[in-house]
Specification:
single chain, about 300 residues, alpha+beta, seven-stranded antiparallel beta sheet, 8 helices, 7 strands, elongated
Length: about 300
Amino acid sequence: MKNKSIYVEIPIQADIDDVWEFTQNPELHEQWDLRFSSITYLLKVKEKYSQSFLYETKIGLGLKVAGWGKSNGIHNKNDGTRTSSLHFGTDQKVSPISEGKGYWQYVPTKKGLTFLTQYDYKVRYGMLGGLLDRFFRPVMGWATALSFDVLKRWVEKGEVPRTQYLRFFGSYVITLLFIFVWLYQGLIPKLVAKHPEEVAMLSSLTAIEGTAAIKAVSIIGILEILFALVWLLYRNKMRLFVLQIIVFPMLTISALLADPAIATHPFNPVTFNMSLWVISIIGFYMSKDLPTASSCIRKRERG
């Protein structure tokens, strides 16, 4: 079964010449496009010839994929639509992509333009490559869509891509941190170890003692695990950050009321909760108006 080509479309409120410059200038292109770390145009032999270039994509752990590309032509329609076609590929075996073709299109609208792309590629390694592409292709589509939204925000609002990506990935690292914290705190001290200090603090704050206190700690542990799942699944992270900004000082005060001496312990709830409180504030401001792949249309309308 042949995989569908990748299609991404986004409206941009800007002059078509400006978007053309942001996308056709390699020094600007490599800043917003998550799929490329660097793009270098090669010298044309003649002006009419297609534009060849080399690209690199860093994939982590010091590894990178280097490839070639060729802009095969630019076509202008009578209505002002511009189209730039592309042929690209790489000989490096670490890349599942061997070569591909696609195009960028700039369609004028009343409020600016619609910027869109459609491309497809061949994979190496036969059936194994085809199987891996079922996971790789959606990632490529997501990266393309996220990059398009970063471009849109850069052109419309002036926020440079580096800052946008810093906020985007920083926000997700903080989200992963809180998933781990709530999952660990609910599972290990409360459900697995049923730590005596957890039980003692609950007993000091309530009238619950003995077996009932142990069961209550287990229930709290389950609730914390569920909250970790909320962090994983709930999209509006800003609301979760606001909730934690309110809750962490309350948890700190509760711990001190239950056992004032706990403030003298190493890595105690005072320093732990207040650190998470500060991180929640940072996360709240970083997660404002993040770029998102969901702002793009991913299927071409049939007409």
